[in-house]
Design a protein that fits this description.
The chain contains two helices and six strands; from the N terminus they run ββαββββα. It is an alpha+beta fold.
Length: 134
C-alpha cells in the first residue's frame, strides 16, 4: 500500500496521509476537497467572528415584543425599513444564527461568512430587548 503525504497549509500546521490503495481512501480528489472545505470553513468562521466583535448591523424587523430576525442570505437586498432605500455599500450585516455579510452596491449582501460561535452572536443579540434565538 502506498501513502501520500499532502501538506495543507502553514496556518493549520500539519499534513494529511492518504492511502492510494487498499480501500482506505481511494479518491484523492475527494480527500483534497474535504481538506479545502475544512480550511475554508475555519477561515470564514474567523471572518464572521471578527465582524460580530467589531460591530455589525443585526438584521431585525417588527417591534418589541414581537421582534423577528431574518437571515443573512447571499444576493438579498437589505433596505432601511423606514425609507425603503437600500443600505449603503460597505455596511456589515449579521443575523441571529451566526451569518454575516458585507453589502455591495444597491444594498446587495455579498461575502457571506458564518460562525458557529454562539457567544459572539449572543453579545450582539443582548442589545435587543426581548430578542431571543435558538
Amino acid at each position: 500500500m502506498k501513502w501520500l503525504n499532502i501538506g495543507f497549509g502553514a496556518a493549520i500546521g500539519g499534513s494529511l496521509l492518504v492511502s492510494l490503495g487498499g480501500g482506505i481512501v481511494n479518491d484523492l480528489s475527494t480527500t483534497q476537497n474535504l481538506t479545502r472545505s475544512s480550511i475554508f470553513s475555519e477561515a470564514t468562521s474567523e471572518i464572521a467572528q471578527k465582524r460580530y466583535q467589531k460591530g455589525c448591523l443585526l438584521l431585525s424587523g417588527g417591534a418589541y415584543p414581537n421582534l423577528v430576525f431574518p437571515s443573512v442570505v447571499e444576493g438579498a437586498i437589505v433596505r432601511n425599513r423606514e425609507t425603503g432605500q437600500p443600505l449603503p455599500k460597505g455596511t456589515v450585516v449579521c443575523d441571529s444564527q451566526g451569518a454575516t455579510g458585507v453589502l455591495i452596491e444597491g444594498g446587495v449582501v455579498s461575502s457571506v461568512a458564518v460562525t458557529p460561535n454562539r457567544e459572539v452572536v449572543a453579545k450582539v443579540m443582548k442589545r435587543f430587548r426581548g430578542g431571543t434565538y435558538s
